Amino acid sequence: MTRSFADRHIGPDRAELARMLPVVGVGSLDDLATAAIPARILDDTATALAGLPAAVTEHEVLAELAALAHSDTVATSMIGLGYYDTLTPPVLVRNLLENPAWYTAYTPYQPEISQGRLEALLNFQTMVSDLTGMDVANASMLDEATAAAEAMTLLRRAGKSKSTRLLIDTDLFPQTRTVLETRAEPLGIELVAADLSSGALPDGDFFGVLVQSPGASGRVVDRREVIAAGHERGALVAVGADLLALTLITSPGEQGADVCFGTTQRFGVPLGFGGPHAGYLAVRQAFARQLPGRLVGVSVDADGDPAYRLALQTREQHIRREKATSNICTAQVLLAIVAAMYASYHGADGLRAIARRVHAHAAAVAAGLGGALVHGDFFDTVLAHVPGGAEAVVAKAKSRGINLRLVDADHVGIACDEATTTAHVTAVLESFGTAQSLDAAAPTESPRAAIETRTTEFLTHPAFTSYHTETAMLRYLRRLSDKDIALDRSMIPLGSCTMKLNSTAEMEPITWPGFARVHPYAPVEDAPGLLKIISDLETWLAEITGYDAVSLQPNAGSQGEYAGLLAIRRYHLDRGDSHRDTCLIPSSAHGTNAASAAMVGMRVEVVKCRDNGDVDLDDLRAKIADHAERLSCIMITYPSTHGVYEHEVAELCALVHEAGGQVYVDGANLNALVGLARPGHFGGDVSHLNLHKTFCIPHGGGGPGVGPVAVRSHLTRYLPGDPLESGSHAVSAAKYGSASILPITWAYIRMMGPDGLRRATLSAIASANYIARRLDEYFPVLYTGDNGMVAHECILDLREITKRTGVTVDDVAKRLADYGFHAPTMSFPVAGTLMVEPTESENLAEIDEFVEAMIAIRAEIDQVAAGVWPVTDNPLRGSPHTAASLVGEWDHPYSRETAVYPRGLAHARAKVWPSVRRIDGAYGDRNLVCSCPPPEAYAD
């Protein structure tokens, strides 16, 4: 029998479903759909997804994608503006970027089984701190422009100035300025632009100053004077800095900056038509607790050994909601790790050599331009003044296979990078009419030129001095990945996160040059293949969701949320309803909902939930009445955050619409809707989608993600536009966001086809209900819908167990590592519970293994309850157990075998042995260390 891709993607086959469905209480998947989903919103099987193409095989989709990639022009990119070609070391391509041990992992919220990723991220933070001269860096941002926007709000939040004005340099990257405009307007921040190259500030007060170095023009300016002037006015100062340039020039930290932001793209991360790339944000120690996003810190485990974990999580949306430092709940982990390993592989001397070579080529271009050179202080980018001739020069370079930057009719920008050669320099100068020989003008490295002002050392830690051979790097990557649980090792049953298969056929094309080496601002004629993928996805995602238009620009779910709420805000403003500023959010909602609402200037009002988990419509009616004139929108998640299909969702939407509000449907749980119900049809006006959940883009250890925003027709005009156009309301630095990973989702939809997508959804629902039925007698399922059904996930309630025995959700989560499993989602959306989502990709054998592990853990809890093991010393409280913990004396009331093979050797499962014991999170927050500790720390 020939198996389709859907047969390979979906875990339970027909025989397994025949065993599962009777446990669930239905006879078929169609019966399951009827039983679980409200009839009022259930799509007709014949018309659902009718607009999608029929399924193709893996080899057919690879052939189609190969043709699309081949149609793209991989020109030599010398456009710059923060995007540069780079030579990714093959050892990193094969063993990191293309390795499922790295790209299928989840956010390291379970640090004991994430030590490899956490160490790599700590390397990233150390790299950024070293190069920028700052004290603390976070574990990456979404891109440079959004990092600048986060820097802007950090300056305002952390500073003492009461001013609402931010001073920005006119030499800022244009896409960064546009994203700043988008973020500033709803917050009442006024942007004031001025040429700050002289160090003088315009009149007035400012809460912050934001500059770029090198600037968009390529000019390198010492920023000491402008930083000092800003401080004299009571303003904090942020500098956008190029990390490769910082290997040669004095760091912003040494010049007195308070904050640094930028991108690490040119450290081995492909151009990818705009992304994904890891931005960065770094601050002085005084502002560490104001940093948005994730922050890896050093703590200790139960044996007192150093261990890594995410630090200061009380800043995040799950805790502070609308008062959080940011709505960002993800990062660009996979790309940050590539950049960190690139730095490890080259080391400080290697990076300096690359930087000198880049500068040497730029200097050769400058020498050839002669009097056309605009400024003589540069690193990699020079600006040429050719009155009235810029378009002709750019066209001539294009005919030679090189893309230059057309600044305006009179100016051309030329950016050199790691891939630039002497032949490229020659071709560029020929385009300007210069034909001199460059053999002597472009040495391999520049001489010790005036640009080299940096005197401080960097990257001296062994993480950056030990892995310069391929053998060493290969083994280092393997050693780190061996410490982590990813999907290549085990089911990851995380509720709300949809950790499903990321197939090899979907992943393979992303490193092809036709997708990976195209500049985001390349001429449109260079990218017909990529633009076809983007156009198809916009159409297909609109069909799947029932909306009218889709933007793929948001490069994370948080950005999609923001873009959707921004569209609602602008819609009300255009109708003269500026007073509509209240956002209703159910108490069960994900924290990013409230944080996103605050970012667009909305006031958050919480709507209660009933005892069964549904939104309380009586309270909703009361809140609508209280805020009728000010009602902007409601944000709901469907199925609900509680994992239930609420049967009154259509009525809820109607109530909000009748009051003049809009309905935002969070797409986090779309994996329970595809092919069955469409938010755009049952009442949604706007949704963001998580391509890294429902549509198979891998989580990458906590990023990348893609969060497209989908809207009905009346909101189409408010979707984000081109970031190179001021006033376009762009939310990310590139027009199509993280375009290079969109082929993953394109391939998934293309291979699944309408029938496969619908079957995947129903299989995910069947697996979740199977788990709920089997575990309910051991760990009560907290919420169910009509007919006792859950959606694609279920919440196991441990609160009464904890009250009776002292065993907590933390104990169960850590104990699962001893059984060889990643834990479900802990204490969200209800404290003291575990939320389980199996997805459609896990077969019955793996699901049953997880169920049996949970049943065995309940038996262990009963032993604690019976007094056989004390609450303070039992296999759960002592978990996870490392191999090292078995050596030497053993004074626990349970055996070594019980500790590490809880179901006995006969049922032993191949597992990742945790490399550290339970980590003390509070210690790490009290003693904040966020860069690589010295080797002596481990020796001690």
TrEMBL record:
Catalyzed reactions per annotation: N(6)-[(R)-lipoyl]-L-lysyl-[glycine-cleavage complex H protein] + glycine + H(+) = N(6)-[(R)-S(8)-aminomethyldihydrolipoyl]-L-lysyl-[glycine-cleavage complex H protein] + CO2
Residue ranges of domain Glycine cleavage system P-protein N-terminal in the record: 7-432
EC primary class: oxidoreductase
Keyword Kinase (UniProt): no
Modified residues (N6-(pyridoxal phosphate)lysine): 693
Enzyme Commission no: 1.4.4.2
Domain Glycine dehydrogenase C-terminal span(s) in chain numbering: 760-881
Entry GO MF terms: glycine dehydrogenase (decarboxylating) activity
Gene3D superfamilies the record matches: Aspartate Aminotransferase, domain 1, Type I PLP-dependent aspartate aminotransferase-like (Major domain)
Cofactor(s) annotated in UniProt: pyridoxal 5'-phosphate
Pfam families: Aminotran_5, GcvP2_C, GDC-P
Domain Aminotransferase class V: 584-733
Keywords: Oxidoreductase, Pyridoxal phosphate
Keyword Nucleotide-binding tagged: no
Coiled-coil residue windows: none
Record-linked HAMAP family: GcvP
Family: Belongs to the GcvP family.
Function: The glycine cleavage system catalyzes the degradation of glycine. The P protein binds the alpha-amino group of glycine through its pyridoxal phosphate cofactor; CO(2) is released and the remaining methylamine moiety is then transferred to the lipoamide cofactor of the H protein.
Entry protein name: Glycine dehydrogenase (decarboxylating)
Gene: gcvP
